[in-house]
Design a protein that fits this description.
Layout lengths: L1 H6 L2 H9 L5 H19 L2 E4 L1 H16 L11 E5 L26 H8 L3 E6 L33 H9 L4 E5 L6 H7 L2 E4 L20 E5 L2 H11 L29 E5 L9 H16 L3 E5 L7 H16 L18 H12 L2 H14 L4 H23 L4 E5 L15 H6 L5 H6 L3 E8 L5 E7 L5 H14 L6
Parallel strand pairs: 2-3, 2-4, 7-8, 7-9
Antiparallel strand pairs: 1-3, 4-6, 5-6, 5-10, 9-11, 10-11
Length: 484
């Protein structure tokens, strides 16, 4: 039974828990056993909270026995990216700097999950401070792709994607600053949602780039994603960027199909940089949508070529500002043997941060410096406006944009770790969406000749999450992947 449980989708397990065919303790135990069995090889978790998970599960079973009306997510075992604060549970951001940091409060999304009696299995591995696309920059250990242990799972939410793909979590929460949910979802063959900027509170998420970060779910299928996003979305008065919006149900309109949808295919996403098999798979998906009754037309997003450099200027500038607080004074790692405050700052930040984090802090400090602010940071913000205008023009005529998630499938561990520019190029198709604050849903659309998953993304205008789920569900059901 244990093996069957970890293969169930959230929707299936929710039904079995509601009818008490499976107990929450049985479900938690099945996932904890799978973590014990596989995670030594995969490395998806930094901290496993087994005792707490079993206590939460027992509480759910007790409430059910007492006839309590519970959420569809009650008793569902989940993993949480380790940059999302969890009260009383170590939150490291996969960095030496926060190796022993225990938050005194929960993030908004954790409060939402606890209200719904979700069972937390532990904190998931990631690129250090969410800076990376491979999950190799973690201070603790790299994460390996469950589809091929010699390959990266993507990043920075690589632990979450690997855990869901391997059956080590029914779902995971990740964060997406430039593709960090969608790219690992594509590499691991699962579903990843980056919501509209401001749709999910960032309160309690350790900030990388405040104008770009967004929390979202990693799941086995589209229905699961809709169920989880419904649980965590909503206005939070403690987050100045939170949107007060009357969200409809994401699950109720799933089955409305693709007929009549106007889908745009941006030619800039199908240039020389993308692998031939990826272009073919996404174009085959476009043809499938046409057979389902949608219209597909090629469009141009001419300023996309400037998105990647603009993103790294903006995100590094915001990261250098956000990470200034980690200085060895109030909390976190502090270097030993220092004689004055300047030595504490220098030694703590030199020893506490990894190479990629230091690289981005230096880049961010440079583009914000007095002589270069206008030349770099201000220019990047102007490019951001142009990219937003490109998307707005397309959405005047189309409902959804269909594009690849990444130019390649998962590559070998170590293949790009010595070449940061090559690693950055892996986000070329995802960062424009963060720059514009749009929602985007990554779903599997086939495999390459090596059997590695290929992901496509459906991009919508702000607040288009229900439409993206509808379009994705239509494709998933027509592909026979709804139970995968």
């Amino acid at each position: 039974m244990s093996e069957q449980i970890v293969k169930m989708t959230v929707g299936e397990l929710s039904d079995r828990l509601a009818t008490r065919d499976v107990s929450a303790v049985e479900a938690a135990t099945a996932y904890l056993d799978k973590i014990s069995e596989l995670d030594g090889d995969i490395g998806a978790y930094i901290t496993v909270t087994a005792e707490r998970a079993l206590e939460q599960a027992a509480k759910v079973d007790k409430l059910r026995t007492e006839g309590e009306k519970l959420s569809p997510l009650a008793g569902i075992p989940a993993g949480i990216k380790d940059n999302i604060c969890t009260k009383g549970i170590r939150t490291t951001c996969a960095s030496r700097m926060l190796e022993n940091f225990i938050p005194p409060y929960n993030a908004f999304v954790i409060e939402r999950l606890e209200e719904r009696n979700v069972v937390m299995l532990g904190k998931l591995n990631m690129d250090e401070f969410a800076m990376g696309s491979t999950n190799e920059t973690s201070y603790y250990k790299p994460v390996r792709n469950p589809r091929d242990l010699t390959r990266v799972p993507g990043g920075s939410s690589g632990g979450g994607a690997a855990a869901v793909a391997a059956g080590e979590a029914a779902f995971a929460l990740g964060s997406d600053t430039g593709g960090s949910i969608r790219q690992p979802a594509a590499f691991c063959g699962i579903v990843g949602m980056k919501p509209t900027y401001g749709a999910v509170s960032r309160n309690g998420a350790v900030a990388l780039a405040s104008s770009l970060d967004q929390i979202g779910p990693l799941t086995k299928n589209v229905l699961d994603s809709a169920l989880v996003l419904e649980a965590i979305i909503g206005y939070d008065e403690n987050d100045a960027t939170s949107l007060d919006y009357d969200w409809p149900s994401f699950t109720q309109r799933l089955e409305q199909g693709a007929k009549g949808l106007r889908i745009a295919l941006p030619k800039e996403y199908f240039g020389e940089g993308a692998a031939a098999e990826i272009k073919e798979a996404v174009k085959a998906a476009a043809s499938k949508y046409e057979r389902l009754g949608a219209t597909v037309e090629e469009v141009s997003l001419p300023n996309m070529r400037y998105a990647l450099p603009a993103y790294y200027v903006i995100s590094s500038a915001e990261a250098s500002s956000n990470l200034a607080r980690f200085d060895g004074v109030k909390y976190g790692f502090r270097a030993e043997g220092c004689n004055d405050i300047d030595e504490i700052y220098k030694a703590t930040r030199s020893e506490g941060f990894g190479r990629e984090v230091k690289r981005r802090i230096m880049l961010g400090s440079f583009v914000l410096s007095a002589g270069y602010y206008d030349a770099y940071y201000k220019k990047a913000l102007q490019v951001r406006t142009l990219i937003c205008e490109d998307f707005n023009r397309v959405f005047e005529r189309f409902d959804v944009i269909l594009a690849p998630v990444a130019p390649t499938t998962a590559y070998k561990l170590g293949e790009n770790s010595g070449n940061p520019l090559e690693m950055y190029m892996g986000n070329i198709y995802t960062v424009p969406i963060n720059i514009a604050g749009l929602p985007s849903l990554s779903i599997p659309c086939g495999t390459d000749s090596q059997g590695l998953p290929i992901g496509m993304q459906l991009i919508g205008k702000p607040f288009a999450e229900p439409l993206l789920y509808q379009a994705a569900y239509a494709f998933e059901q027509s592909s026979g992947k709804g139970d995968a």
